[in-house]
Amino acid sequence: TTATMYGDIIEWNSTGETDDAGIGFLNTSPFLQGVWVRNNMDIGMECLGSSAVDMDPEMENAFKNNGWTEVDGDPLLDRIADVDEIWLYKNADVMIDEGNNDIYDDLGVDDHLMTRNDNLFQIDGTENYWKGALDDAFTPENPVLVTRADEGAGPYTTAGFDCDEEAYNLFIRALDNMKDEDFEDALDILCEIVTEFPDSRAAANTPMQILRCVRELDLDRERFRDFLLDIEVNNEILNSNRHLVANLFLLDLGEYEPAIENFTDVRDDAENQQDRIIAEMNLAYAEFIRSAREDHDGINSAGMSFDAKLKKLLNRLHSDSLSLVSSPLTFELCTVYPNPFNSTTTIRYKLTSAADISVNVFDMAGRQIAILHQGYIEAGEHTVSWIADDVPSGVYMVRLEAEGKVDVRKVVLMR
Predict the structure, then answer these.
(1) For the chain, which terminal residue's Cβ has fewer other Cβ atoms within 10 angstroms, N or C?
(2) Quick one: which of 101, 88, 128, 98 has its CA closest to 35?
(3) Degrees to nearest 5, angle at CA 212 with 256 and 262
(4) 3-state DSSP assignment of residue 394
(5) Closest Cα to residue 185, out of 215, 213, 224?
(6) CA angle (22 as vertex; 80, 149 as ends), nearest 5
């Protein structure tokens, strides 16, 4: 749940696809100091889940000129527009005020310095060096308040910045204690924040820090799990993060099946595809921990499987983010062959973009006979087979549904 990085250089990461971040954090609270993230193919730093990245005070990190693509093997001949130096998704947060960090892009394309996706809180970005598409990146719907150190006070200042001052200052104190490895005092402060200021921005980021302190001090996981779940809150992000940490406590306790079941429920209840992908990442992590602890001989294969699954999910997350501004989904049921058929037929269909879909079979009375596919699928052409061994002869309807749209084909089963 935590990482400390000092003086690292993260650059030129690419596998030939436009989804290679320099560095990514999932449910992690890293301290970064003197880290350079530059010239990576896509996002410089991406923070997912309940990550809270600490880059203050005077951490002096640099995020520069991320987002490029190769042309004839030369990585500098072309640039990718709409790339973020720092990208925060959902519950992620960054402590950056008074950090003396450099966040800039001077390559003349429509990139963003920092974007936070669907987050409720503002970020105080004062006393950092910002250079690039500042006005495009920080909008009323995407509030980040900054002073441009290179130009004096710009249109975005700390005026009116609501940072839940008392709770936020307590949170910074707790982080400072954790840097000094004083986890006992840090834990006391974090518990005070969630009980006294449960609706604050700071409280939303405390569960992951509480988890770290409990692990460092090797305290009773069940006690602190109950503590988090018993808090009465109206803070949507705190509620999400505390349930995440409650499941991670279950993993620590060796209660793998309840944790996996809970992560599965979160995935199934996700309100959009991006939330579903984040939930699948957490689920994949839980399954990896179970495999690694129950089968020590298979830990390497489990780790490789987890890495591959995580990479695939990140690709889906990035492509899904891009699809938010793409053309509307179109699809069609292309063919059903053979038709008429005896016991097995193959349905071919295609999608113009990735989506959650269902392919089902109904009889002429409207009763559902078979579920052929339900869930997320990539854009492109696909096939699915219907094996109708236990179904009587008759006329049936194959129904493809995605995003409220429907396409139907009639099929005839003849014995």
Answers:
(1) C
(2) 101
(3) 30
(4) strand
(5) 213
(6) 80
- pTM over 0.90? The answer is no
Backbone phi and psi for residue 118, each to the nearest 5 degrees, phi listed first: 60, 50
pLDDT for 248-297, tens place per residue? 999 999 999 999 999 888 888 877 666 777 788 888 888 888 887 776 65
What is the full DSSP assignment across 160-175?
Answer: T----HHHHHHHHHHH
Reference 211, options 233, 235, 194; nearest CA is 194
Distance, CA of 95 to CA of 413 (rounded, Å)? 63
Lowest-confidence segment of 103-117, 263-277, 396-410 by average pLDDT: 103-117
Helix (H) or strand (E) holding 66: none
Q: Which tokens belong to 259?
A: 């944790």
Nearest-angstrom CA–CA distance, 88 and 287 = 25
Q: From CA 12, how far away is CA 297, in angstroms rounded? A: 34
SS3 for 218?
coil
Closest CA to 217 of 171, 172, 170, 178: 178
| Rounded distance between C-alpha atoms, residue 37 and residue 7, angstroms | 11
Residue 237's pLDDT is: 77
Q: What span, in angstroms and rounded, lies between the C-alpha atoms of 187 and 208?
A: 11
pLDDT for the residue numbered 142: 39
The residues with which 413 forms a beta bridge, in sequence order, are 341, 394
At a CB cut-off of 8 Å and minimum separation 6, what does 332 contact? 349, 350, 400, 407
pLDDT top residue among 232 and 405? 232
Residue bearing the bigger pLDDT, 321 or 91 = 91
Residues 6+ apart with CB under 8 A from 355: 273, 329, 331, 376, 377, 402, 403
Which pLDDT score is estimated for 13? 75
Q: What would the DSSP string read from start to end of 137-190? A: H-BTTB-EE--BTTTBS-S--STT----HHHHHHHHHHHHHHHTT-HHHHHHHH
CA distances from 168 to 42, 83, 123, 194, 309 (A): 32, 30, 12, 11, 36
Give the separation between CA 398 and CA 369, rounded to whole angstroms: 10
